[in-house]
Amino acid sequence: MNLHSRRWLLAPLRQLRTHRLMAQHGPTLPYDTAWALITLASAPDEADFVRAWATENPDGLAGVHYDHWHTLSETEQTRRKQWLHRYRHSPIQLLHLDADLIKSTGLHVIDWGPCANR
Predict the structure, then answer these.
(1) Domain of residue 103, residue span
(2) Which among 30, 38, 42, 58 is least surrounded, fewest beta carbons within 10 Å?
(3) What is the pLDDT of residues 25-68, one digit of tens each?
(4) Measured distance between the N- and C-terminal CA atoms of the chain, rounded to whole angstroms
(5) Residue 117 forms part of a structural domain
């Protein structure tokens, strides 16, 4: 099966995983970045495709960056504490993507900063 057909057939599953990652991560993860992360996690051989997309749509300094815990709302802090208590890692960290791969593709990813109480 050629790459174009495979992308077309797997698109609904990838969209479902993208929306799930966005819901788990919270409001700081845009759809395009979530889609690129899911693409890298599910098909690492498509890194060139993600790299081309990131080149056409620059979004800041490439790599994984962290938000600041103290700037979050009380609700978001509670939600993240519950998630971290249960899974011990952020949703992006659970994808097990290498930070160098993310940086080499040109993605600008904002992950959860360290918890104030950890």
Answers:
(1) 3-111
(2) 58
(3) 998 899 999 999 999 999 899 999 999 999 998 888 999 999 99
(4) 47
(5) no
